[in-house]
Amino acid sequence: MFKKILIANRGEIALRVIRACRELGVATVAVCSTADRDALHARLADERVCVGPDAPADSYLNVPAMLSAALSRGADAVHPGYGLLAENGDFAEACERSGLAFIGPRVRHLRLMGDKPRARRIVEKAGVHVLPGSPEPLADLADARAVVEEIGYPILVKAAAGGGGRGLGVARDAEALAAAYAVARSEGERAFGNNLVYVERYLERARHVEVQIIADRDRRIIQLGERDCSIQRHRQKLIAEGPAIDLPRGLRAKLAAAAIEAATAVGYTNVGSVEFLVGADGAFYFIEMNTRVQVEHAVSEVLTGIDLVRQGIRAAAGLPLDVEQKDVVVRGHAVECRIHAEPSGAATPARRTVQAFHAPGGLGIRVESALEVGDVIAIDEEPLLAKVLAHGATRPEALGRLRAALAELVIDGVPTNQALHRRVLADPELDRGAVHTNWLEEHGQASRPLH
Amino acid sequence: MRGLLDPRELKKLTVLMEESGLVELEIESGGEKVRLVRGRLAESSAAVGASLPATRAARREAETENGPRAITSPMVGTFHRGPALDAAAFVEVGDVVERGQALCVIEAMKMMNEIEAEFRGRVAQILIENGRPVEYGEPLFMIEPV
Prior knowledge:
heterodimer, A: alpha+beta, 8-stranded antiparallel beta sheet, 5-stranded parallel beta sheet, B: alpha+beta, 4-stranded antiparallel beta sheet, 25% helix
């Protein structure tokens, strides 16, 4: 096992990793920007290293500073959390070259799954369905038109290096295709430093279902069931729940098997999720694989009782999984809300100070947050402020607990999406489970004013 | 009426600037002309104030404005007082250093980065023990301008 882990992240996921390390008896080094010196993650870790000024490019994305911090403090491993450097193959490679274990999959897995068209090809070869689309990144708009000629509209235009709902656009005709193509290119360039674009058929009113897997270095791969993340706004996940309800007979097992096949095909190690779209007809298609611990990992944790962060650290240390497939039992139902800050009008100052924060609690409630009174939040970046999870024996019980928890949650001083969550949870269609990836937008929930 | 250059009048003007948040003020009256510009203290408060709560910003000013000034580390790494592990230290307490003179080395990623004095002054304090890790922005030396 590692002696000391540097956590190359901030916020709730940094706390999550610090807690797992504490349990494992591993020392922790937090990193922070100059603005975060007093942030909770920086105080809770055994050591703190300020790695640069406020701008993320100079601090949390500053690879030399991260490595220097890890080496000068005698860390032997780096945990990237999610976002920031988590899926950056160059960072993982730089860690390994410096003699630091990267807590995640191998560099080649990051590179492969980060190249979405290539990932699609490999997974398709392994026998998992993918949506019809361009097998390679497109050369130009004419190339895009030629592909669309074959597969038809509506079409989803994606940045090849994309993720997190960025660099995506839907097109229903040639004019929209040109616009979406241009947007995906520029967003891809800006957000991921890569302007390659590909297209695939856009499946409307589908469900987003993802399977959680863990694999050790000895090629043991197990799956921890699925999460349904169909409630999305601007293609970003808002609510995650597990297990997915009302799946056609036999589909759950098929999804799990496909996830294992996809992971096996690339010899995957560590924690990961395989994302699928499930059509109204029950057909399912691989979309992508997330090569990191996900924001919504806690849903699977409360359902199975398995600590995913701990398993990831163990796997990176070369230890075998300490759980077998036959021991994985999904108990009850869990639902998670992502509470984000959000801009609430043009006149709003870009930075707001948290005036009050109260996290709900009680039986079946889990809150993951690093928020504190006095924190200054850049609301334009819509940062995640808290994850509120409810676990119950049944779906109605979990939803009831979540409604009670959200009624109790207080975040003052910063505009958030709490009101949207409360409206969604009050919608009778949610109780019936009749949701899909277009549901929120079709209901106008996404665009209604929040206050 | 007192002239603009009377210290009490100047003081009033600075208070006015403070309260109104003015950065620059120019007044002409009775043949006297005064131009007041808020200096480093106010500027730094505006710059860090954007990202830090007021109390933290205030604390930073107090650290840097009185007497000797801190030389801070521009990077994360390991502090070395000399150019190599067993070499003599670049400076000792009491030494007068010239602007641009090497004070120490920060080792980062096996690269030795020389840190230079930003102004002429006397080394008042060496804050970090040889071989200790330092973070970005960490004070390394206190230098008294001479």
